Amino acid sequence: IMFLNLADSYAGSNNGSNDYRGRKQDEKYQGQKVGKLNYPSKCQLLIPHRVAIALVDSGWTLRNTIVWYKTNSMPESVTDRFSKKYEYIFMFTKQEKYYFDLDAIREKCPPLNRWGGNKLIAKGQSGWDKGTGQTTYRDSDMQPNDGMKNPGDIWNIPTQPSSEKHYAMWPERLVERMVKCSTKAGDIVLDPFAG
Predict the structure, then answer these.
(1) Are 138 and 121 in contact (CB under 8 A)?
(2) For residue 166, pLDDT beyond 50
């Protein structure tokens, strides 16, 4: 399993190599011309998605697009768009069968609750609990017997302060989840960006 996280950029953002303002050179994909890199200023470039598509085209299987919701994200001084509070993490595999241990990362499931707000919901239905902001489970077969559930593809994990001068460092909880679900004891983990 490979987990991939790439930052996006905006055309004309003046971030060094990410500044695509007025760039007119031909864009090539697998040696063929596919268009011009002439994006409007301030246009989000969708770099993570472009890389994900290129990986799928080259034989990788995209199994999940995970949204890492950073509950304490860095503020941005933008006034003409919403500040970004999340990043994408793509989960790729190379083979159809691969090691994946969901039990290692399951989370506590909200208790079985037959009430949805002030209204009784009939057995066999599920609903949204306005008080907790979570889906409530109505049937025992919808709630795992051990009270644990699949964490889903939106991970609410805050960033973590560090004494290192590495401004894109992942929090340990984020890395721990990826490593636990995709490795066994003794496996080797490659982190090419050491972060």
Answers:
(1) yes
(2) yes
User: Exposure pattern of 5-42 as b/e (b: 16+ CB <10 Å)?
Assistant: beebbbbbbeeeeeebeeeeeeeeeeeeeeeeeebeee
State whether the Cα torsion 176-181-187-189 is positive or negative. negative
Task: Tell me the pLDDT band of 125, cut-offs 50, 70 and 90.
Answer: low
The SS3 call for residue 57 is helix
For residues 100 and 58, is the Cβ–Cβ distance under 8 A?
Answer: no
pLDDT at 131 over 50: yes
Q: Is the dihedral of CA 45, 46, 51, 55 positive or negative?
A: negative
What pLDDT is attached to residue 137? 52
> Any residues with CB less than 8 A from the CB of 24 and at least 6 apart, and which?
36, 37, 38
Residue with tokens 């009270």: 147
Note whether 62 and 56 are within 8 A (CB): yes
The arithmetic mean of pLDDT across residues 65-87, rounded, is 92
Residue 167: the pLDDT is: 66
Q: How far apart are CA 14 and CA 77, in angstroms?
A: 15
> By three-state DSSP, how is residue 56 classified?
helix
The predicted model gives 96-108 an average pLDDT of: 94
CA distance 123 to 89: 37
Q: 136 near 116, Cβ under 8 Å?
A: yes
DSSP at 176: H
SS3 95: coil
